[in-house]
């Protein structure tokens, strides 16, 4: 077993404890051997990173590897429909590689076409392609005109819902994804309306649990939130409490049930949220942009109320390239009034818990040696999240 020693100015282990100053991080093979302060042991390969901070590898729990991050939603949909399966595969492989090189060592793909994302996952696992560890749902379950129907998995009745979920499990999906409401990028769908009743969502979640796989539910209005809570889906993607076009209603009792059932909410830091960094978003007058203040205030209430949350990019949707997660984290610090440490924990330790990968997410002995070396101190300046000096995945240098 090869042993490596890493040193830097600081180490943030994402456990909730203080930053470790002048750490000595020992890597034994694929795992972390120890995290200490003190003299460097002799006789081992040593890598020094002065002026830098070591943090756990990042985990983006909601991406779309086959999407192009084009300038408009229509362009993204057109691209997915126009490109062949081979073109989509090559796009997904390139996106996975780009994600890894900015420090994203684990990805969860929340909707692709056919079995393309499973193929990407399998190539990475075999060592035939470079990329993060990947969990994928295959195709998301949706209605005939519902959100992302153009990805191909249609289910309108409860019997069809069951068959769709069974098909994804048979096609080796790592988890199940259901579009519980319509979505902003699919014109034929309505984000304000539930696409499925509570029984259908529970059917999907129960099928997943029967084979020890979790379910993610896309929820863009409160219409589907009670059903997602009743079904005890593992993650509620977007978790939007909107009840009318420009009105949100936060329900403390429903929030309490989310907490008690140990569910997680995914807060979306895609381009739509990045008005402080993207001029084209700041000047946009569409509904999702006009509502940002209300949306962020509702999300802040969830955070202050104790709901477990992760931050994700929704990469692949318009203007949201796969390698821009760090900008999304800066957005969360600014708009949700998070500390940089809270933002980092939301894409490391908490993200690992949310998707059931307890072998990673923190820099502790025995955990996978997935880590990122950042120039400067990201705990005092979130802009440092975009200054990646080195990336390690499973004890192997990816970028140094």
Summary of the model, kept short:
The chain is of the alpha/beta class and 400 residues long.
Would you write up a description of this structure?
The chain has 400 residues and is an alpha/beta fold. Helix content is 31%, strand content 23%. It contains 13 helices and 18 strands. The protein has helices at 73-82, 85-101, 116-126, 158-170, 198-210, 225-230, 252-260, 279-282, 287-290, 292-305, 325-335, 340-346, 349-354; strands at 3-11, 20-21, 23-28, 31-37, 45-56, 58-63, 104-109, 133-136, 176-179, 215-218, 235-237, 242-244, 247-248, 264-268, 308-312, 371-375, 388-393, 396-399. The strands form four sheets. Strands 1, 2, 3, 4, 5, 16, 17 and 18 form an eight-stranded mixed β-sheet that branches. α11 crosses α12 (340-346). The longest helix has 17 residues, at 85-101. The protein is globular, with a radius of gyration of 20 Å. It starts with a strand and ends with a strand.
**What is the count of structural domains?**
2
- Percentage of residues in DSSP E strands: 15-25%
State the CATH architecture of the largest domain.
Alpha-Beta Barrel
Shape annotation:
globular
Report the CATH C-level class of the largest domain: Alpha Beta
Separation of termini? 21 Å
Q: How would you state the average pLDDT, rounded?
A: 97
Low-confidence stretches: none
CATH homology group of the largest domain: Metal-dependent hydrolases
Radius of gyration over C-alpha positions, nearest whole angstrom: 20 Å
Helix tally equals 13
């Amino acid at each position: 077993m090869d042993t490596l020693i890493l040193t830097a100015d600081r180490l943030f282990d994402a456990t909730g404890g203080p930053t470790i100053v002048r750490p000595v991080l020992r890597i034994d093979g694929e795992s972390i051997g120890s995290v200490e302060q003190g003299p460097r042991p002799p006789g081992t390969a040593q890598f020094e990173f002065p002026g830098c901070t070591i943090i756990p590898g990042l985990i983006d729990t909601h991406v779309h590897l086959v999407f192009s991050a084009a300038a408009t939603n229509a362009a993204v949909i057109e691209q997915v429909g126009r490109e062949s399966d081979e073109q989509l595969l090559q796009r997904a492989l390139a996106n996975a590689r780009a994600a890894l090189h900015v420090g994203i060592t684990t990805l969860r793909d929340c909707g692709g076409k056919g079995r393309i994302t499973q193929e990407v996952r399998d190539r990475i696992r075999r060592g035939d392609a470079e990329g993060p560890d990947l969990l994928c749902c295959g195709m998301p379950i949706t209605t005939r005109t519902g959100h992302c129907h153009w990805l191909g998995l249609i289910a309108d009745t409860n019997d069809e819902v069951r068959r769709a979920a069974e098909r994804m499990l048979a096609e080796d999906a790592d988890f199940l994804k259901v579009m519980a409401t319509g979505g902003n990028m699919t014109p034929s769908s309505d984000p304000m309306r539930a696409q499925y009743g509570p029984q259908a969502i529970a059917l999907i979640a129960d099928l997943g649990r029967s084979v020890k796989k979790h379910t993610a539910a896309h929820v863009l209005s409160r219409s589907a939130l009670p059903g997602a809570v009743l079904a005890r889906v593992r993650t509620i993607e977007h978790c939007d409490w909107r009840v009318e076009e420009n009105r949100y209603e936060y329900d403390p009792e429903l929030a309490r049930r989310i907490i008690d059932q140990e569910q997680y909410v995914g807060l979306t830091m895609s381009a739509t949220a990045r008005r402080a960094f993207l001029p084209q978003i700041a000047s946009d007058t569409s509904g999702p942009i006009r509502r940002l203040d209300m949306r962020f205030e509702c999300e802040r209430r969830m955070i202050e109320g104790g709901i477990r949350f992760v931050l994700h990019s929704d990469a692949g949707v318009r203007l949201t390239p796969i390698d821009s997660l760090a900008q999304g984290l800066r957005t969360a610090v600014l708009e949700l009034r998070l500390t940089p440490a809270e933002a980092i924990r939301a894409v490391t330790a908490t993200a690992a818990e949310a998707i059931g990968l307890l072998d990673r997410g923190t820099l502790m002995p025995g955990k996978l040696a997935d880590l990122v070396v950042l120039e400067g101190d990201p705990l005092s300046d979130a802009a440092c999240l975009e200054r990646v000096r080195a990336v390690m995945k499973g004890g192997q240098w990816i970028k140094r």
